[in-house]
Amino acid sequence: MPTELTPITVTDHLWIPLPDGRRLAARMWCPEGEGPFPAILEYLPYRKRDGTAPRDATTHPVFAAHGYACIRVDIAGSGDSDGRFDDEYSEQELADGEAVLDWIAAQGWSTGKVGMIGISWGGFNGLQLAFRRPAPLRAVVSVASTVDRYADDIHYMGGCLLSDNKNWSSQMFAYMTRPLDPDLRPDWREEWLGRIRELPFMGAEWLKHQTRDDFWKHGSICEDWSAITAPVLAITGWADAYVNAPPAIASNLSSAPGKALMGPWEHRYGHISKLQASDFHGEVLRWFDQYLKGEETGAAELPDYRAFVQDHFNPTAKNTPRKGRWVAEAQWPSPHVQEVTWPLAVGGFAQAPETGRVTVSNPATLGQAGGYFCAGMRIDNELPEDQQGDDALSLCFDTDALAAPLELLGRPRVRLRFQVDKPVAQVMARLCDVAPDGVSQRISYRARNLCHDDSHEHATRLVPGEVYEVDFELNECAHRLAAGHRLRLALSTSYWPIVWPAPEVAQITLELEGCALILPERRVQDEIDPVAPPPARDYPVLAATDIRPASGRSNRQVTADGRHVLETFDDYGKAENPDHGLVVGSSVMMRYSIHPDDPSTACFESDWTFEFARGDWQVEVLTENRMTCDRTDFHLWRKVVARENGAVVLTQEWRESVPRGVL
For the whole prediction, is pTM greater than 0.90? Predict the structure, then answer.
């Protein structure tokens, strides 16, 4: 533990009462002394007792040593908390969160000022609670989150179904079947089995909401930017899936300061990034010291947008360091970034719109180099690789070798005028940096369901032969193409396994006079101080006793019937927690398969295993999940087998089919 940390007191378990009599389980780190102290809340369903304990050990003790009471709370129906879990970001979750904030503010050790911190789920509900304006919530640090639950989460992208809709529901299914701790809950067995029996079938429920309806508008802060009055620091890494929220927050918050920080990280807090560890603690403390303690730390004067501009490197699925430099824009949107329109021409780009037609159609297997949708969730082997193989199957538009560097910062756009030969079709756009040796590095990408209107609230089948137009943004990027490199726009009709394919192979015919790439080109002569995060400081770690080391592997094959299969296995290891002696192990197998000539053969499977032990008490939970489809429906199945001391105590299966609509 770093020598500068002052003594703290850790309360391993405490109960937070809710107005209706339920209790939420919490852990607390607090500076020694009477206080009062400002507080930091992290509010998750991932189990403070074991699930996030290793990560919590690296954050909350550091913040507590700097004068904060840190509270890590499990939402209802998770960990050892009372109640039943109903869905992600539900009204129950958010109402309970407000009650937790009120409870913290009312404690004698509290100044009444609370900040929220979190990555992914905790980053989401920090923003969502700020949207509700509870009085104690004075500042938020939101990492890898979204402002629009339909447009930018793990369910849909551009109106296309992400295969992670099923993958994530499978993971949450496994997570929520874990037992309560007998040391804290004498009623653990009854509650554990009751939870499993009543678990919602989230993958099917999310799949029933295929357009941007009220289900997704709930919890989407973009519905009213002015509602948020707590200052927000929004952080994401370029290898993460959630790259669009920070610049949107910096651009749109009107009633509070909003700052964006985009670094060379995956879906992890910056100090534990496997790509380039950075001082996440310093960023958090500067923000909260300013807005919870009232100290002048410079947080208010930070540039609106700080970004790590990436250079070309040899892309690989393995975790490898990034190349680039930090830049900053005092204001966002910035006067230094201008949209530049590049009309599409056969094979490349033109100075002015040109006439002509080109077609886009490809095997359903295109996308093999795309990597894992949300890098940072697996052990390794999850990042985008050299795109040359996917490029060869796509319709590509290349520049000549650049005479001078080209720097991009923002969201590129693609404008298309097109016809299709099928009533349901998708288009995938990838922007790539192609080196002189041909290595193609993905800069940005985005999927678009061509049946959707611009709002994604309405969708209708396409009429083959009719001419349509679409204009859509790709994901946020910050990239510098060197002189001698080429910029490539690659278009395809599928992107498996990230995007679930349309029911049939479609052909898109582009009318080139209505097609263009619009780039956010950054040109600046006098750079301002980027206030770049330094390398990660020293931080404490959980001194767990490893019983089985973590490991991971990936394998691709083509079966005898022509299906292309990607199978991954991640063993997250097995270890004993030194604080309470709980032994926990987990692993997951995932399998994606599809035939290149028939997108309706798409199949996703995942099997999770969790093991728990302490003394003569042992529990094992196995969950199996599968999603298949045909041209009219999706078919979802899941199963759980729960064992106590080797004996099966519960087996349950769920099946449901959902009409495809225009997916």
Answer: yes
User: What confidence category does residue 5 fall into, taking pLDDT thresholds of 50, 70 and 90?
Assistant: low
pLDDT tens figures, 162-181: 999 999 999 999 999 999 99
Residue whose entry in the numeric block shows the structure tokens 């300013």? 290
* pLDDT exceeds cutoff 60 at 129: yes
Tokens for 42, please give them. Answer: 């992290």
Instruction: Quick: pLDDT tens for 404-439.
Output: 999 999 999 999 999 999 999 999 999 999 999 999
d(CA 279, CA 261): 12
- Where in the chain is CATH 2.60.120.260? 337-522
Q: What is the CATH number of domain 337-522?
A: 2.60.120.260
CA 268/CA 562 separation, integer angstroms: 37
Dihedral angle over CA of 279, 284, 286, 290, nearest 10: 180
pLDDT in tens, 278-329: 999 999 999 999 999 999 999 999 999 999 999 999 899 999 999 999 999 9
Is 566 within 8 Å of 554 (Cβ atoms)?
yes
Of 128, 197, 202, the C-alpha closest to 167 is 202
Which two tokens mark 567?
């199978």
Which option is the CATH number for 9-159+210-302: 3.40.50.1820, 3.40.50.300, 3.40.50.150, 3.40.50.1980? Answer: 3.40.50.1820
Range(s) within the chain of domains with CATH label 3.40.50.1820: 9-159+210-302
Q: Report, in angstroms and rounded to the nearest whole number, the Rg of the chain calculated over CA atoms.
A: 25
Q: Determine contact, residues 375/239, Cβ cutoff 8 Å.
A: yes
Residue with tokens 């707590």: 230
- Would residue 633 be called left, alpha or beta, if left means φ above 0 and alpha means ψ between -120 and 50 degrees? beta
